[in-house]
From TrEMBL:
It holds the Pfam family WHD_BLACT. SUPFAM superfamilies: Metallo-hydrolase/oxidoreductase (SSF56281). One of its GO terms (molecular function) is hydrolase activity. CDD domains: metallo-hydrolase-like_MBL-fold. This is Glyoxylase-like metal-dependent hydrolase (Beta-lactamase superfamily II). It comes from Blastomonas natatoria. Signal peptide: none annotated.
Amino acid sequence: MELPADLPTGLAETMEPLVRRVLAGNPSPFTYTGTQTYVVGDGADVAVIDPGPADEAHIDAILATVGDARIAAIMCTHTHRDHSPAAAPLRARTGAPIIGCAPLILSDDGPRADEAFDTTYAPDRVLADGERVAGDGWTIEAVATPGHTSNHLCLALVESGALFTGDHVMGWSTSVISPPDGDMAAYMASLARLQERSDRIYYPAHGPAVENPAQLVRGMMGHRKQRERQVLRQLEGGPQTIPAMVPEMYKGIDSRLYGAAGRSVLAHLIDLETRGTVARDGELWRLAEPA
C-alpha cells in the first residue's frame, strides 16, 4: 500500500474552528494513514474523539493539542484496538471521564481491520442514541450506527453540522463487516439512517474528510447491493465456498486482504440466509430451494 507522502503524524491540523485532528503513527493496509483523533472545542474545555492506540507519542501529541484546556470527555466511536486503547492512559493522566460507546469484547474469529477488540475499555458513561455531551461552545450528540460493530456510534457536532463517523463511513475505503459482531443488515440500516440526515461534512477515523456525505452514502449503499448481486451470481453456478468466491469477486486487490474480504462476503451471506435467499451445507453456500 502506498501512502501519501509527508504525513503530519503527531501534529494538530485545524479542520474548522471547533475541530482539530491529530494523526497517530499506526498506518497499515487497514488503517490507511493511521487513526485520526479529533479534539473538539476551542475554549476552556474540549472533547477528544477516538484517542487511538495506547502509544505514548500519540497521547503526548493529543495533550499538546489540548494545551491548557480541560478534557471534558474522552469519546470513542467503538472499541477496536486502533480506536480506544489510549482512552485509559489518557484518563489516568488527566482525570477526564470516558464517555461514548458501550464496552464490547469478543474472541477474534477472523481477519479484522483493527486486530480485534480493546479489552481495557471501561467507560464512565455510555451514550444512548440521541444523548448529548456539552462543553464550552460545543455540543456532541450520539448517533447509533451498528454494523461495523454492534456498539458503533457516530458523533455529531451540533454547532457546525459535522459528523465524526469512526469506521462506519470512510472516504478512502469501505468498512469491513466481520461476523459474528459485524452485521450487514444493521450496517445497511445505519447507512440508510445517515442518508436521512443533513450533516455538512464527515470526519472519519481514517482517511480524508468527506465533503459530499449524501453522495458518498448513496454510493456505498449501491456498492453493497452490487456485492450482494455478485454473491448471488457466484452461487448461480452451484454451491461455493467463500475462499473460492473472494478472488472472483475482488479481482485486483492485494491477496493479503482476501481474509478481510471474506469476512464481508460472509456478512452478505448471513444476511441473505436470514432473508431465506441462500442456504449453507457446512462450508458450502448455495441458493435456497424455492418455498
